[in-house]
Amino acid sequence: MTNAPMIDLRDTTKKYADGPPALAGVTLSVAAGECVAILGHSGSGKSTLLNLIAGLDKPSSGTVTVDGTRVDQLGEADSARYRRASIGMVFQFFNLLDDLTVLDNVMVPAQLAGIGKREAKERAVELLESLGIDRHVKAYPQRLSGGERQRVAVARALMNEPALLLADEPTGALDSSSAEDVRELLLDLNSDGQTILLVTHDVQLAASTAGRTIELVDGAVARDVANTVSGITVNGSAGAVR
Ligand SMILES: Nc1ncnc2c1ncn2[C@@H]1O[C@H](COP(=O)(O)OP(=O)(O)OP(=O)(O)O)[C@@H](O)[C@H]1O
Ligand SMILES: [Mg+2]
């Protein structure tokens, strides 16, 4: 364990050709083992923030450091390598490959990282078991429910044991019961020590899943608060969905 933060942004700005900056001088740090929710209206810069942390995009100014790596300074090949080794990503619409089985989808990141097929398969099956979807290993994603697909996407994101799990509206396309399953999955992963950044519009999801909420308004940090026990109690109603 080191004391260095898992994520550290210093005065990070992202400007596109026209319009106001998508991110306007964001300074924040996240410790290893935290689950932090990023809350904000549409267009407030949430996905931009995740993209910079994942090295998918470069800031216009400021720094982005993840697990000791200056992500903003990586070239294309190193950036891809960094993502394969350190980042797992989950999106609203799953982004699974429809012509691969569940098992093959989950194995993709390991194979891209050059891990042997046998070892990749073992780990994929293990993950699918632990996420409760092992009976679907041979199915194609389109046959699964939304909640099942999202669990496959989470398994794929965890394949290379990433230091950091980034989730962008992972429950946005799910019904309330599947959303609750995914919420519980994120809680379990975090209690096992996984560092998670969870982007959401949903105040209740943020408060009931993450230990801390950072709210973006117009690309700037408007609020950065610990989610108190009373907050969790208030949002305990989310549990009543089941
Ligand atoms: N490639 C791009 N080119 C130009 N502007 C962009 C680009 N990507 C994002 N933006 C702008 O940056 C701002 C922040 O976008 P971002 O996607 O980060 O918002 P968001 O908070 O994720 O929104 P949503 O909740 O709708 O997903 C928006 O005004 C958007 O139009
Ligand atoms: Mg977004």
User: pLDDT below 50 for ≥5 consecutive residues: which ranges?
Assistant: 231-242
Bound molecules: adenosine-5'-triphosphate, magnesium ion
Report the span from N to C terminus: 37 Å
Q: What is the CATH superfamily of the domain at 7-94 and 160-239?
A: P-loop containing nucleotide triphosphate hydrolases
* Shape label: globular
Query: Would you give the CATH topology of the domain at 7-94 and 160-239?
Result: Rossmann fold
Notes on the structure:
The chain is α/β, with parallel strands linked by helices. The protein has a domain at about 5-95 and about 160-240: 3-Layer(aba) Sandwich (Rossmann fold). Helices cover about 35% and strands about 25% of the residues. It contains eight helices and ten strands. It has helices spanning about 45-55, 75-85, 100-110, 115-130, 145-160, 175-190, 205-210, 230-235, and strands at about 5-15, 25-30, 35-40, 60-65, 70, 85-90, 165-170, 195-200, 210-215, 220-225. The radius of gyration is 18 Å and the shape is globular. The model is unreliable at about 230-240 (pLDDT under 50). The structure holds adenosine-5'-triphosphate and magnesium ion (MG).
